[in-house]
Amino acid sequence: MKLNIQEIPEEGLTLELSVDETTVTELASLDAEGVQYRLLKPLKAHLRISLAGSIVSVQGSLEAAISVNCSRCLKGFTHTTEPAFNLYYVRGAKEHEEREKELTPEETEINYLEGDILDTTELLLEQFSLNFAMKPLCRSDCKGLCLACGADLNKGPCGCKKEKRIDHRFASLKDFKVK
Ligand SMILES: [Zn+2]
Ligand SMILES: [Zn+2]
Fold this sequence. Notes:
Elements: E1 2-4, E2 13-19, H1 21-27, E3 37-39, E4 43-52, E5 55-69, E6 76-81, E7 84-91, H2 96-100, E8 110-113, E9 117-119, H3 120-132, H4 162-178
Parallel strand pairs: 7-8
Antiparallel strand pairs: 1-9, 2-4, 3-5, 4-5, 5-6, 5-7
The protein binds zinc ion (2 copies).
C-alpha cells in the first residue's frame, strides 16, 4: 500500500495490513540472503503511523510464518516471528543534515522518503527479510549433524568419538607421509 504522508490525520492512522505470498516471494530480498523458504500464510501487520512535524513515525508489529530448513541439522521446520519495530521517516534526502538536528537520540534510525509516499508493503517486506535473514535454527541449541557420520545429534550421540574424528584426519596425514 502506498500512503501519502500528507494525508495522515493529526490523530494518526492505524492500519491492519496483509501481504500475500506472491508479493512476498517476488519482492522480499530474503532469497538474495541465501535463505530458501516457503511462506505459510500472508504476512500480517499492525501499524500505527503518525506525523510529528516533518517526521513520520511508524510503530508496528509483524506476524510471519515460514517453512525453512534448519541450517545445522537440515530438518524442515516452521519458523514464526512476531517482531515489533519503530521506524522513522523524513522527507527529502537532500535536507538530511538540517533535519537530523530535530531528531532525538531514539530517532537515530531514520529512513528518507522521496516525495510524500510511504510504501508500507516495502516497509513490511524489509522487516520480514530482516527477521529471517539470520541462519535459521530449528531450536537455539540444535546440535546439528555429526561431521563424521551425518547422524542427527539431536536424537542422541551417534557413537563417533571426538578423538576418532581427529584420528581420521591424522591417519590421512600419516598415509601421506608414508608415501
Ligand atoms: Zn536443527
Ligand atoms: Zn557420528
